[in-house]
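To close the section, here is one more complete example, presented without commentary so you can practise reading it yourself. The ligand is adenosine-5'-diphosphate.
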Amino acid sequence: MNLSEKHNEWNQVLDEVAKLINPSYYQSFISPLKFFKIENNKLILLAPSDMVRKHVETRYLSQIETAIYNIYQDRYHVEILTEAKESAPVMNELAIDRFQPTNNQFNTDYTFENFIIAESNRLAFTACSEAVNRPGDINPLYLFGSVGVGKTHLLHAIGNEIIKKEPWKKVRYIEMTSFLNEFVYTVRQSSRQALESFKLKFQSYDTLLIDDIQFLNSGADKTQEEFFSLFNFLYQRKSQIVIASDRPSYELPIHERLKSRFTKGVQANIQPPSEDLRINILKKYSQIYGLQLDEISLNYISKNILGDIRYLLGALNDILLFKKAYNYFVVPYDKVKEVVDSRCETRRKTSDLTQETLIDMICEFYNQSRKDVMGKSRRNEYIIPRHLCMYLLHHIFDLNKTLIGRIFDCKHTTVLNGIHNIEKKMEIDKKIQEVINTVRFQFDLI
Ligand code: ADP
Ligand code: MG
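Output:
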């Protein structure tokens, strides 16, 4: 079957794509695409706006290409043009990118202005501003931290800032999974030309923002190889590379030589949001949402919803719904509490873990018996796991220090010191960071 003869068969392709992606994304990004023409094995589509074009290019090209292959058993390379530019002289891919300064692959809410700075993210924030103002000085810039601490926000903020200040620059945001899809698809085409143009495209960026690098894994040797050479190319070309990850680079499941490249610049850790930051975020977003909340409500939310900032924003959305449903001017504290409690309840149920299992987990990590960790001995090998239990009981179960003191049969100041001890050590002790991350993950907090 020849796709070029039957334009309306594009609809068939659309149906196939619909099977591959989430329906709401399909509605927003795929159905607005129009068939334009076929050139050799290139299928050219039209997007109604640059935003849709960019988004489809970064996220859905491989799905469209797969759909075509599923139907026609033939490889087509998909290219997308923005509709208004349909009659413009066809430039090569790179040139098109360069002359479309208003491309917006970036989330316009994720800006530096909207990013609230606190101790936990100050280093990362500063380094990201440097990446815009003095590109190449910190190279690569490697951001890491658990889910929902603002990594993706910062990557987009860099992109937004660059296209605002220096619109001629070529900047690209890509999630590692999309990079992998795109690469695997290119390789499957087994055409040297396809691989060349893939490489050329990536080598042309002045700034490359790579999100969720942890998905580059040790199994994908060929991809790693390609990524390694791309990295070196961009590095030598002095392009700014910014990488976001859920873990420090030494913990990535990748080859040592690539890991060591990542340590050449700066590794900026973003810590889970402190209470201060949570309060400030709540204040800022409730203002944006037109939601008035009193101090006690703000405090209740921020004390109970920890970790991922998305949960905070989710709670605000629920409260906003209450406000609308009941026509409240100021949503009363008991309603706020209801929303927050029910959110915490669902999360605890899904994680189904108790304070007991938390303590057991820590003992297991440190290979110590529960009796010793819960006991009174001041030996170093018991102290760290003991203090970690205190720290995590406080942060995950929101137990106050007196209660924790009862569990460990000690004074509340001892608990306080224990928690401080971990806060101090977690900056430098990799094992502590790892344990905290794993436990938070188990408890569905990251
Ligand atoms: P990550 O990529 O680390 O998982 P995101 O960048 O997706 O986290 O952040 C999750 C949500 O929290 C986003 O809506 C983001 O805008 C918001 N957010 C995170 N950190 C901040 C911050 N410091 N100030 C304002 N909003 C933030
Ligand atoms: Mg992210």
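Once you have examined the tokens, check your reading against these statements. The two ends are 48 Å apart (CA to CA). Residues 275-351 form a domain with the Helicase, Ruva Protein; domain 3 fold (CATH 1.10.8).
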